[in-house]
């Protein structure tokens, strides 16, 4: 399924970092600006009040109030003071708030605006106020003017415009804003570098691609029949698929555990040290014989881990043996066809010579033997897999001139599902073939087969009149590679038989007959406990 491409990881990281930095900077800048404005306002208000107090104590100002035209004296005096201290305005008013001095001489003689003189004129207080006057919103320092008797003569108002306060605060904030802009640019640069470094670590993949690969990896590991284990450079298990748990009988999750605690006596550390892959090794893992492949994980020229895949060797042997048996059955059927073709030629010759009685006798002998055996196979044995195997062995016995009989008392129903045709070929096929070989050299070669499923077990019994098995060989016949024959590539049949019977929770008994032959008896439970 094609997935829609989302926002790239690099873009997400850059946007996130820039958003965090800008949020922090904006919050801190706002707080600093507020503090700076309040500090500037406090400083300006204090300065205005101090100037107002100082002006109110000037003797020349008090003397000017006694003149016929106080403004003529006060205006130039106060303007000089205003310019010296840098105030926006210094206004002098009498007890009726009539101006005697103002930066705009046109407003002299008019009443002061702001309605904030009462505390100074009526109560003699010095204070800071904020009001809107003729020049606009301003921060003012108010102080009363006392005569020598202590009576209130007027009021001094020293002010700074609010716009000037804001401008002063902004000028003080320029350095902060420049540093903030630099911090934002630095954050963007760091975000880009961080995003590139992360993309390099994850091989340039986007998060949605990593998620897709993760789900695909889990699906693949769950579907494969081979066990797969991966370890890191410290020997800790980083991956363990369900097939590996099943083959190794691991009930609990073994992730992040030392490999030797899960698989004792493992040689996987050898690959970790040498960095060389190992292919198709036949080893024992726990109680299972498996075929193992080990491959090192190499990153930047260093071995950072090992992946080991393995499969139960019994399954592989069963598959190979099944294919071998199928090929053998095919060859046996061709041989049987050849044999019956020869018999047809003989019958044709007898008919041409006019020896009809001999021809009829030959037909009756052949049909009588096969009809009896086939009747047992098809009417008393209900399992089709067992029927196919026995028919093949009957053909092989006929070719090799072996008297292969199926006991008339043999009876079975269809076998349970856990006993497959592969199991039957491995067990019955190999035991019967061994019995055929055991009779080589005998003038009369007899092999019999019996089976029953009465009770809780399915029983198979193969008997021959061969030379038997010596006591010294009896303990070795189920060992892999052991054979009484001198040919190469032998000694695997009975070993596979033993493994298959063990896998099906059954057991095998072998004993010698009085006449020297051998009897192999297999017991398989119909129900296998998990």
Uncertain regions: pLDDT < 50 for 5+ in a row? 486-490
Helical stretch tally: 15
* SS-derived structural category: alpha+beta
Give the H and E element order.
Answer: HHHEEHEEEHHEEHHHEEEHHHEHEEHHEE
Cα Rg: 55 Å
Strand order of the largest sheet: 2-1-5-4-3
Helix content: 40-55%
What is the typical, i.e. mean, pLDDT? 81
How would you sum up this structure, described in words?
With 530 residues, the chain is α+β, with helices and mostly antiparallel strands. Helices cover 50% and strands 21% of the residues. The protein has helices spanning 9-56, 59-64, 70-85, 118-123, 162-201, 207-223, 242-248, 259-262, 268-274, 313-352, 356-380, 384-399, 421-438, 471-474, 493-503, and strands spanning 89-94, 99-101, 127-133, 136-146, 152-161, 227-232, 237-240, 278-285, 288-299, 302-312, 403-406, 446-452, 457-464, 507-512, 518-525. The strands form 3 sheets. The chain has a 5-stranded antiparallel beta sheet with strand order 2-1-5-4-3. A 5-stranded antiparallel beta sheet has the order 7-6-10-9-8. A 5-stranded mixed beta sheet has the order 11-12-13-15-14. Helix 1 runs antiparallel to helix 5, helix 10 packs across helix 12 (384-399) and helix 12 runs parallel beside helix 13. The chain crosses the membrane at residues 12-33, 175-195. Its main location: membrane. Residues 335-528 form the Histidine kinase domain.
């Amino acid at each position: 399924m094609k997935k829609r491409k989302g926002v790239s990881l690099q873009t997400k990281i850059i946007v996130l970092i820039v958003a965090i930095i800008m949020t922090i900077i904006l919050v801190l800048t706002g707080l600093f600006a507020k503090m700076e404005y309040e500090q500037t306002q406090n400083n300006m208000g204090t300065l205005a009040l101090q100037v107002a107090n100082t002006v109110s104590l000037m003797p020349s100002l008090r003397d000017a109030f006694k003149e016929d035209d106080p403004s003529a004296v006060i205006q130039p005096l106060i303007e000089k003071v205003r310019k010296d201290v840098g105030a926006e305005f210094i206004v002098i008013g009498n007890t009726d708030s009539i101006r005697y001095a103002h930066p705009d001489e046109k407003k002299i003689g008019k009443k002061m605006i702001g309605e904030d003189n009462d505390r100074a004129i009526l109560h003699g207080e010095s204070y800071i106020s904020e009001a809107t006057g003729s020049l606009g919103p301003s921060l003012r320092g108010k102080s009363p003017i006392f005569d020598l008797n202590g009576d209130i003569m007027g009021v001094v108002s020293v002010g700074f415009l609010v716009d000037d306060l804001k401008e002063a605060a902004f000028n003080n904030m320029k350095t902060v804003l420049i540093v903030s802009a630099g911090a934002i640019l630095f954050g963007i640069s760091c975000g880009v570098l961080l995003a590139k470094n992360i993309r390099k670590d994850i091989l340039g993949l986007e998060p949605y691609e990593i998620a897709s690969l993760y789900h695909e990896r889990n699906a693949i590991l769950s579907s494969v029949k081979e066990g797969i284990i991966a370890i890191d450079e410290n020997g800790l298990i980083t991956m363990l698929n369900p097939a590996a748990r099943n083959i190794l009988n691991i009930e609990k999750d073994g992730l992040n555990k030392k490999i030797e605690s899960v698989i004792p006596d493992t040689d996987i550390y050898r690959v970790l040290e040498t960095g060389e892959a190992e292919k198709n090794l036949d080893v024992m893992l726990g109680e299972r014989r498996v075929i193992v492949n080990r491959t090192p994980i190499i990153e930047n020229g260093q071995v950072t881990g090992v992946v080991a895949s393995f499969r139960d060797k019994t399954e592989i042997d069963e598959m190979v043996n099944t294919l071998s048996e199928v090929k053998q059955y095919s060859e046996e059927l061709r041989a049987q066809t050849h044999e019956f073709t020869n018999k047809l030629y003989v019958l044709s010759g007898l008919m041409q010579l006019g020896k009809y009685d001999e021809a009829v006798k030959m037909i009756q002998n052949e049909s009588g033997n096969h009809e009896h055996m086939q009747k047992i196979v098809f009417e008393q044995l209900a399992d089709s897999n067992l029927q196919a195997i026995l028919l093949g062995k009957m053909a092989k016995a006929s070719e090799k001139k072996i008297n292969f009989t199926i006991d008339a008392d043999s009876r079975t129903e269809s076998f349970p599902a856990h006993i497959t045709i592969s199991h039957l070929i491995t067990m019955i096929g190999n035991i019967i073939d061994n019995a055929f070989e055991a009779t080589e050299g005998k003038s009369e070669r007899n092999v019999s087969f019996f089976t029953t499923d009465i009770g809780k077990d399915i029983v198979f019994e193969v008997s021959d009149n061969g030379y038997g098995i010596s006591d010294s060989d009896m303990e070795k016949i189920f060992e892999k590679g052991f054979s009484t024959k001198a040919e190469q590539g032998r000694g695997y049949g009975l070993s596979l038989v033993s493994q298959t019977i063990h896998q099906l929770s059954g057991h095998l008994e072998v004993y010698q007959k009085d006449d020297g032959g051998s009897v192999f008896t297999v017991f398989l439970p119909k129900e296998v406990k998990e």
